[in-house]
Each structure stands twice: as C-alpha cells, then as structure tokens.
Amino acid sequence: MSTESHNTGQEPRHTDVSFEGAAVVASLLICVYILRFTTNFMSSFDTPPPPSRAALGKDYRMMPPEPRLQGVPGHESDPQADLRKKNQEDAEANEKLEWIDKSGGIAQIPVKDAMKIIAEKGLSAAPVQAERKK
Prior knowledge:
It contains four helices and two strands. It has helices at residues 21-43, 51-54, 79-94, 111-121, and strands spanning 98-101, 106-108. Strands 1-2 form a two-stranded antiparallel sheet. The longest helix is centred in the N-terminal third of the chain and has 23 residues, at 21-43.
C-alpha cells in the first residue's frame, strides 16, 4: 500500500479516450424518438373499453372487478367491523334459548348448558337421525 497522495489536483487525462457531449445528446434524442414511435404504434392497436366500462370513465382500470377482497381501496365494507359483527352474532346464537319444534320436544339451549348435560349424562349410544330439511 502506498502512503503517497494520488490527488495531484488535475483531472485524469487519456489520449485514447474522449467523451463528447454531442454523442450523448444524439443518443438521448434517438431513444426519445424510439419511445414515442413505439408508444404511438402500440396505442393504435389498443381496443376501446366495452360500453359497460366506458360509462365509468378512466377509473374502471383502477379497480379490480367484483368480488373484491376486503380492505382494498374502493371497497365499502370494513373487515374489522365485519369480524366483530360475526363474532357477536355467533356469541348470541350460542346463548340462545328457544323451541325448535315444541310438539316434537326439540329445543335449542345455550352451549354451556348443553356441555354440562353431556358431561353429567354422557352421549346416547344410538345416534339420533337428523330431520331432513324440505
């Protein structure tokens, strides 16, 4: 490793290498021309949107079609509020006490009570056949 300074205060020069500003500008102009040509060429093949989408204007391309995932921009429902509502409905259904078929003696009881009854008496040996829905 050398301890002497390499900075002489002059720009490095090489006789075989030169940078010309005109070549850089010319290549930039060529690139811009190619970009404009290809953009115009491809836009000539672009088909217009169908009439059902044309009424929406340019915004139709921004939104994916329905059904959309919850939480994406433009979706009206709040996923957290939906989850809270579902959890509340499930909790209410687990605590509901009502007759399903009073003449048949079938009632819906809270889950906690049903678990206590099953723990005390156990399950029946013969499975009860479920009633078919009409």
